[in-house]
Amino acid sequence: MRRNDWVRVGVVGVAVLLVAVALLPPLLQGRDVVKLGLDLRGGVRLMLQAEEADDDTVARLVQIFQQRVDQYGLANVELRPVGRDRVEVRIPGAEDPREAQELIGQTAMLEFRKVLDASPNRDDLFRAEPTQEIMRDVDGNMYYLVEGQARLTGGVLDHAEMRVGGDIQQPGSYIALRFNREGAEQFVDVLDRLNVGDRLAVILDGVVYSAPEISEGIKRSAQRGWREVQDGTTITGRFSSDEARRLAVVLRTGALPTEVTVLEEQTVGPTLGADAIRRGTMAIMISFVMVILYMPFYYRWLGLVADAALILNMLILLSALRAFGATLTLPGIAGIILTIGMTVDANVIIFERIKEERRTGKAARASVVAGFAKSMSALMDANITTLITAMILFTLGTGPVEGFAITLGLGVAGSLFCALVVSRVLLELTGIGERIPVKLPSSA
Known about the structure:
By secondary structure, the protein is α+β, with helices and mostly antiparallel strands. The chain is built from eleven helices and 15 strands. It has three domains: 194 residues, Up-down Bundle (Multidrug efflux transporter AcrB transmembrane fold), CATH 1.20.1640; 63 residues, Alpha-Beta Plaits; 146 residues, Gyrase A, domain 2. Helices cover 52% and strands 19% of the residues.
């Protein structure tokens, strides 16, 4: 084989390997390959109410909620303002309303306050001033008397991320914080005002997650400047990885501009109903089977090549949807059906060019090479314009339109790859190209 042939075979092999890595685990474990949207599977619906809100506040809430679900990896979440003080949230595929509520509705008010006293019994703590507060820890086993004024807040955070602890005595995940310069300088000032042995409580939404003692080492670090303490603060609390990741997302996106109350929380079924879902599934299956049967009937051996390219493209499409965490909706199913037709359409253009070259008396391999070369411009023009359309729909559309654009764009890219690379490998290296019949034009 020539060098180009080896390259094509290698690319196809890598594509098949990636498909297997993406699809085999969920198939073997009996899980869904692709997340299904609210219209196909259902999910969780929340109705949130802002305590003090106007139109601008509700718009800010929607923006923060969108950032949270995007960073947490929840795809195709529907967010919309309802009136002047409410936001409706629909999360496809979610089953537990409480988990969604913890991500969406958490205030994320992070504070650092000096600890004045601590006891496992709340009644042992006495407030010397009205502003002082008694707060429990995250486990509910300890109570802390803290100053009423926060020494530092989460408004000066630059980043927060989940990390896995390496301490055997305290396993689990924790949250690493990184202050911006202003925050790090304020933290240095806080440490300068505290003594060795004092405790500084890390409080999130009124709950103490940790209350470490100020050590001699952290005091020396603060004396060396703000860079020494910029990224040395953590929040611990025996988190699971999901809890730590969720809290890190909430902290990164910032605190909500007002308190939010959950008015309604419910698990909703598929909005389309079982009959519509069944019809959509049947449409995919019928169109796929009809194309698979028609291509060999009309194009003989070339039709088998088109079928192989179509099957691989469907697998690539499903793998890409899974890899990107995309959610499949009914418009997405329409995009898949359209992809089925576009995949074989690309092969039809190539096959007709090959047959034209064969009629001129060229050898089989030369006809295949010339057919791919002469069909390249037509294929690129048609598919690139469709990709541009899909990108515009994805950028400007939301919800169902966005789902259609995702499957259409991925399907077009996959069909172009399968037509130009996979089909060529099959025609040139399996001997199928030699079976193209010679049909010379009849003489007058």
